[in-house]
Amino acid sequence: MCRIGAIKSLNYVHPSMALQLMQSQQKGHDNSGFAMVMHDLGGVFENYKHLPTLSMAATDEGVRLAEDILHQAGFQRVMQWVPETDDRPGLDINAMPNYVFETFDYPKSYRNAEQKVKEDLLLDMRLQLRNALEPNEEGFAYSFWPDVITLKEIGNPRDIGTYFRLWEPDTKLTAKVITTQCRQNTNYDIVRYAAHPFHLQGYTALANGENTFYLKNVEFQRKLHRGYIGFESDSQCFLYTLHYIHRELGWPLRYFKHVVTPLPFGDIEKRDDAQQLKAIRQSLGHLEINGPNTIIGVLPDNTLFTCCDAKKLRPIVVGRTEDTVVFSSEVCGINEVLPDRDWETDIYPHEREIVTIDDKLEVQRWKQ
Amino acid sequence: METMKVQDITPNDLPWKIRYDAHRCTLCGSCVAACSFRAIEAKVERRRLVFSESEFPEPKARFSAVPVIRQVKSIKNYCRGCGICEKICPNDAIGPVRNPDSRHPIITRCLGGESIKRGGRKNLESTVRTLDKIRVGRISQMTDPSLDAQRHAFDMLAPFGRILPPQKLPMGIGPDGLLQITGTTPPVNWIYPVIIGDMSIGALSWRMWEAVAMAVAYLNEECGLPVRMCSGEGGVPVRLLKSRYLKYMILQIASGHFGWNRIAKAMPHMIEDPAGVLIKIGQGAKPGDGGLLMAQKVAEHIQAIRGVPKTDLLSPPNHQGLYSIEESVQKMFLSFNAAFKFRVPVAIKVAASATSVSVFNNLVRDPYNIVGGFFLDGVDGGTGAAHEVSLDHTGHPIVSKLRDCYLAATAQGRQGQIPLWAAGGLGKTGDLAADAFKMICLGANGVFSGKLILQMAGCVGNDQGRCNACNTGLCPVGITTQEPPLVRRLDPEKVAQNIVNYFLAMDTELKKLMAPIGNSSLPVGRADALVATDHAVADKLQIQYVC
After folding, report:
1. What does the alpha-carbon distance between residue A6 and residue A287 come to, in Å, rounded to a whole number?
2. Which CATH homologous superfamily contains domain A4-367?
3. pLDDT tens digits, residue range B423-455?
4. For the domain that residue B98 is a member of, what is the CATH number?
5. Chain A window 245-274: which residues touch B at a Cβ cutoff of 8 Å?
């Protein structure tokens, strides 16, 4: 089973906090991997927020392939950060030869392009990279987006932390939003891509659960958007639905909840917006989820949110202090990283609400 | 000695032989009176008794005339095996026995020079049903807990109506930041996923039809199950058209357009919209053939409802004037949508065929968004009357065809836009919940069933040739007849009660299937929940093979 967590802070925080958050929950996951996506970057990336950063794990050949593709498309590298690794023997990590975090400037012809055009270009480039790297497993392109980096690896999260020296806080690698999960996908084949969080065009999602409408979701999503690929984990479905509702259809976040866990017909009929909700339920019925799930998501404006399945079969707790909000599957994780908070203000979201945290750390609880 | 006439018909030529025990018979005459086919009659047999009254054999003979019950040896009044005689006999003295040596298919054609007609379902022996080779095999364990069929809430409704793709929904963000409807959407009714199939008033006795309508009203108003019933082609009593119960009826139009004169005339007086309109193009039990209502069944009230004289009513095999799918969409769909001012969904029913996917593809790409459902009827469907050769030898199984249509929609990202409804032998084993559930997992939004409803009412017919006499107008249990003495055998309230109870049981059973796979709403297209014990079935349906 997964344990998931997220941190959103007014200050830049180091991933060590995310590791600590998850470490105390290790009995609840199987220590088979570690993955995190960081939004709103500080440290070495702080001055490059407007430019896309490629997060990739690759062989030497993979790095060469990827850089060639990007250079050919006209991208110019402006910054590169390579984590110093600690490859002492005995660590439980299935490491790739290279971990690349490179920031690029857009091709000249795109520099004055509209935002949407640029965003489509970034997606297409990532898909192209993935396509090129996949056949011989030369590498894994996790994200290529401004102000976002992704790290995923197979192994024991504690050792992965050691390998990347993530246990030692520093000021180089920080962010105001970190989402994290400690598990490889153990249901199916071990694939680096399969560990959540997943990222697509500014949206990040991770989930604890089992989406029993996975097949319905997948079959529908495959035809909705070129970026909806992979499907190595049922949690990807949540990301794609979020992206589709919020970005492609341009609907407010609350409708994501209406799509994934629609109200029963009887309840819809009693509402003023029954017509809208019915239309949504009809047209997007294949994006409904079933089974036990808790979802954490990040929007392009760095809003952090969480919601659950319609029966609340998976837990999530929100704890907070003046400058930091933490989401966690188990409250022990929050106790670890926010020991001095007022635990009486902890929120245990119910099955019909979305809890959102904006950039000022204002908490909104929206009831479906 | 008279030359034996080998061409004469004897009981051994007929499909059923009467077993009669003269010793037990009290000659009450009930069986003869009850046999609607006049297949048995009272006769007098000459008996010879040889006896001896002395100590040594001195045979004497005594002749007597004994009244008995005898089987009629005729291809007109032959025994259908319905067993009504057996049911009514107080002494178990009589009953039909299946005759494996029957020459009926041959002699009927030889003597009559006509094709054999009958009702019921396909009677040819077939292998184990496809649906029985499929199990609900993905059971929620540990990571995704099973639900509790008794305790959890389930949302089991299916759409009837055209569903727009999300990007075409006429919705925009209003000043309050919320979605607002900015245009019109096609009408969609969310109904119970099992529709009572289209059996016409005419094919059914008035008591039977009324009983079904009563059951539907009760299920809706007292049990909270929004079950809909399709009228079948043949009109609807005006009293019902003008009542508030019309909202539970799906009106059917088929190639004969029977009954539509009255429906059209009643439109200004309707206080409720019907639940939908179903354009019947074809029927699974007799694909490529129109409906048959033999003159025997065209009673006075049927003549009135349909506006016809007493004659054989033969619907043409197709809708005259519709030459293509495009045309059908433009003409029929538009006119029926317009007739109810685009408030009532209009769907189409076709017989499953090797070409079904092409038809479905054409409809799903319909630019007017007016096709509100694709009803696909497979080879095992029932009928009131058809040529036996059509019943037994034409048609296409429903399971793979339904799946093909769903996968065709999926390949285009159009699943759900035209709801798929499947029928044709579903519930044949008596277990409609299981069949419906499996069809839903394979991609159906819902199912419809007719023959099973008759069986709930007491139909004694089966798929081994028992009864199957719906076409004769002599239904021994009063379901498919217009003969008043026969119709009175049916207690409509008891029938309604049976139907209601069956639906309540089925509703529980559907939940019992949804709970273990962890779903609280219908698992439409969740083929991953199914496994097949047959490799070919698994391959064809794209589900997991298990052994």
Report:
1. 24
2. Aminohydrolase, N-terminal nucleophile (Ntn) domain (3.60.20.10)
3. 999 999 999 999 999 999 999 999 999 999 999
4. 3.30.70
5. 248-252, 254-255, 262, 264-265, 273
